Amino acid sequence: MLLGGALAAGAVPGTHPSIVGIIVAGILGNVAGSYIAWAVGKYAGRGVVRRWGRRIGVREHEIDRATVWFERRGAAAVFVGRLVPVIRTFISLPAGFAGMRPVPFGVYTTLGCIPWTVALGTAGYALGANWQNVANGFHGPTYAIAGIIVVGLAVAVVVHLRRRRGDGNESKSGGSAASPTAQVEGNSHTIR
């Protein structure tokens, strides 16, 4: 949404989409994605989400938190949950788990996502209108951050190479007293 708003403000020459179009597209995308998550919750269930969710960034405690939120507030939790960071991302799953009907879910989702979408699109528009000032303000910090990253990568490479050489030297020295040997004493095995 921030990028869309910035593009609408003319942050990139030659691209001037309508801010209203950007916001409408954001709302439609939010609602479509929410219906997908709702359908996963409704038709796949908690077990599938708990088992496979971590592979796509959905952590179990986040699902539990959104489920508790939904159970406390009922259907209105979808609307209120859309206004609360973190909860807004996961509230569709508990709505699906609970079998919330699709039409009320869509209405609450649409009404709840409008404030965030408008706010982020507008913030992007304001940023895009002042793009040169913002970009110029980041030149100094950008060089400092790039320098820190380069130094960090260099240190990581040196440490990696030293560890690798160290491992190679130990294995080339041949078996020493440090290598374990097994001796059989009667029926018991003792490793020395």
Give the number of DSSP strands.
2
Q: What is the ordering of alpha helices and beta strands?
A: HHHHHHHHHEE
Strand content: under 5%
Distance between the termini: 65 Å
Number of helices, counting only DSSP H or I runs of 4 residues or more = 9
Strand order of the largest sheet: 1-2
As residue ranges, the low-confidence spans are: 175-179
Largest sheet: 2 strands, antiparallel
Shape: flat
Based on helices, strands and strand pairing, what is the structural class? mainly alpha
Helix content: over 70%
Task: Kindly provide the radius of gyration, computed on alpha-carbon positions and rounded to a whole number of angstroms.
Answer: 28 Å
Mean pLDDT over the residues: 80
